[in-house]
Amino acid sequence: MCSERQIPFSPPDISEEEIQQVIRVLKSGWITTGPKTKRFEQKIAEFCRTKKAVCLSSATACLEMTLRILGIGPGDEVITSAYTYTASASVIAHVGAIPVLVDVAKGSYEMDYTQLEHAITERTKAVIPVDLAGIMCDYDRIYDAVYQKKELFHPQNDLQKAFGRVVIIADAAHSFGAARHGMLSGQAADFTCFSFHAVKNLTTAEGGAVTWRGMSGIDYEELYRKYMLLSLHGQDRDAFSKREADAWEYDIISLAYKCNMTDVAAAIGLGQLDRYEEMMSRRKKVIGIYNEGLKDLKVQVLNHFGPAHRSNGHLYLTRLTDKSREYCDIFMRKLAQKGISSNVHYKPLPMHTAYKNMGFRIENYPNAYEMFENEVTLPLNSKMTEDDAYYVAETIKRILKD
Ligand SMILES: Cc1ncc(COP(=O)(O)O)c(C=O)c1O
User: Mind listing the pLDDT tens digit for each residue in 88-128?
Assistant: First the structure.
């Protein structure tokens, strides 16, 4: 059975604005990292009210390069949430450190902050909290936890010494534009890593950015230079700065990586940034319609807007009260028959083969399992009309009555 109406989960919202920006770059004679990427970095920093931003090829690259800049590696532990996408944890293994997974708090998608504090050992160098669905974590509570355990921290280089405690690296793949406790995503954690992947609120097709907070003893420009070196083969001058005919010479400072952003991608991002508020207001409308339409059903929804926080409306996670995963999967199939795409965020990491092979057991993460067991994520994107949102809410009402 195929429905007339099709509501995709998260199609990219690309307008004539982005198309024209990309055409201009394609015709400009410079398509890889260059002036557009630098402009996009400036714009991201202005948006997040930080001094600087670095744009790279993905949030995964941003997380990994940040761990490398901090000199985190073999023998170190880095803590993240069990309830996330693999990228939050795999980067820890990529640098040779040990991923430590913490359960979420009961009934919450946020890491259990008390468990986080207990998980900090003499080997812990960083924590990667995950801003799930566009709602920022409670960074006040996370700073409390790392300061409580300050005595256990053993810095192994000057940058770690400047922090003098476990470093907070936000996995903000979902939270560009969100705010909590008066801080924008990008300003709260020591480092914040955004994703501009195709399904995100603001996209560059693939891409990411890092911002960081000012700290005494930490030089902003020096950090920026480190990201440049690490993301471009440790080469001391990028291709753009040596494009002049007689400026060929460069040095390789270290054997580094290759994860720079292209100007083609940055051009999409610049167009998206100009339309961000308009796209956000459309997401907000869908959230309002869903909240109203589902309020009398046995469906728990996330609170995207409260007195202390403002989400960016990235994902609309729901939980079907008292239902099993099996019921939810059938429910999702019925939605699909009505043309509505849905998803699950997330199957907790300890349920995946790679993490099982590392010794993680879901039995040790009962809260994460409970959240997963009846979770269904509804379509939420800026291409949806209000009519689409009413249709989704009505369809859910009907399915749950059956
Ligand atoms: C929570 C989370 N972290 C990290 C990432 C990785 O982002 P990227 O694809 O930009 O590397 C994703 C991707 O969807 C994600 O959902």
Answer: 999 999 999 999 999 999 999 999 999 999 999 999 999 99
Which one is catalytic: 36, 52, 200, 226?
200
Residues composing the chain: 402
- Distance from residue 208's CA to the centre of ligand 1 (Å): 9
> How many CA atoms within 13 Å lie on the side-chain side of 203?
19
- Cα 263 to middle of ligand 1, angstroms: 21
Residue 259 Cα to ligand 1 midpoint, Å, equals 15
Ligand 1 atom closest to 208 (CA): 10
To test the ligand 1 pocket, which listed residue (81, 196, 197, 202) has its Cβ within 8 A of the most ligand atoms?
A: 197
Helix-strand-coil percent breakdown of the chain, rounded to 5?
Answer: 40, 15, 45
In which region does residue 18 sit, left (phi positive, over 0), alpha (psi from -120 to 50) or beta (all else)?
A: alpha
Index of the ligand 1 atom closest to the CA of residue 197:
10
> Burial of 53 by CB count in 10 Å (0-12 exposed, 13-18 middle, 19+ buried)?
buried
CA of 159 to the centre of ligand 1 (A): 26
Burial (CB count within 10 angstroms: exposed 0-12, middle 13-18, buried 19+), residue 176: buried
Nearest atom in ligand 1 to 87's CA: 4
CA distance 218 to 160: 10
Contact at 8 Å (CB) between 37 and 262? Answer: yes
pLDDT-wise least confident of 230-244, 301-315, 320-334: 230-244
From 172, 148, 153, select the one nearest 163 (Cα to Cα).
Answer: 153
- For 232-239, which contacts have Cβ atoms below 8 Å and span 24 or more sequence positions? 232/33, 232/256, 232/258, 232/260, 233/257, 233/258, 238/33, 239/32, 239/33, 239/34
Is 338 labeled as catalytic in the residue annotation? no
Residues near 309 by beta carbon (within 8 Å), at least 6 away in sequence = 135, 136, 178, 179, 180, 181
| Residue 186 near residue 192, CB atoms below 8 Å | yes
Q: Whose CA is nearest to atom 7 of ligand 1?
A: 59
**Distance between CA atoms of residues 339 and 268, nearest Å:** 29
